[in-house]
Amino acid sequence: MSLRIALLGTLAHHGPATGYELAKRFDTSINLAWQAKHGQIYPELARMVKSGAVTVENAGDGRGRKVYTVTDAGRREITEWVNGDDLYRGVRNESALRGFLVTLLPPREAAAVMRAEEARHAAKLAEVEHLKEEVEARTAPDDPFGRYALELGLRNATMMRDWAAETAKDLENKAEKEDRR
């Protein structure tokens, strides 16, 4: 459902767009919150047309491009989703799973895994910081679309980097204690 909502929200904010334009917008903004491959976007757009959440028209440029526009029904769907209480929101976090399973390794090896995890999150943080600069350069200061999610991404990447560093340090301390025995 979230891909559908992300597409509807992007169309609602930016206005009519082709599938290619939507995919590019995902790559430079919403991808931080919800990742989608180009091959996932087009089938979802077709389902959205069929359900009446968007309309589709030929771009009229002779290339067969289709332009999608959110409908009132699509806007209502966004409102319902944002206001809804999804008790079954799934969480998949490979870093958290790594945190569970890393303890199955010897402490020194586990510490190295967590240092690699720290580096991945540090790289993600740098990527999000760069994205923030790009967003600020191309959007008006009073345009809030995506800014709250961007701030969440910055905080999350910082927290995950710090968590991995602290976990690695704890494992390194355990390895040192084992070495002294």
Automatic annotation (TrEMBL):
It comes from the Bacteria. Transmembrane segments: none annotated. It holds the Pfam family Vir_act_alpha_C. Residues 8-79 form the Transcription regulator PadR N-terminal domain. Residues 91-172 form the Transcription regulator PadR C-terminal domain. This is Negative transcription regulator PadR. It comes from Streptomyces subrutilus.
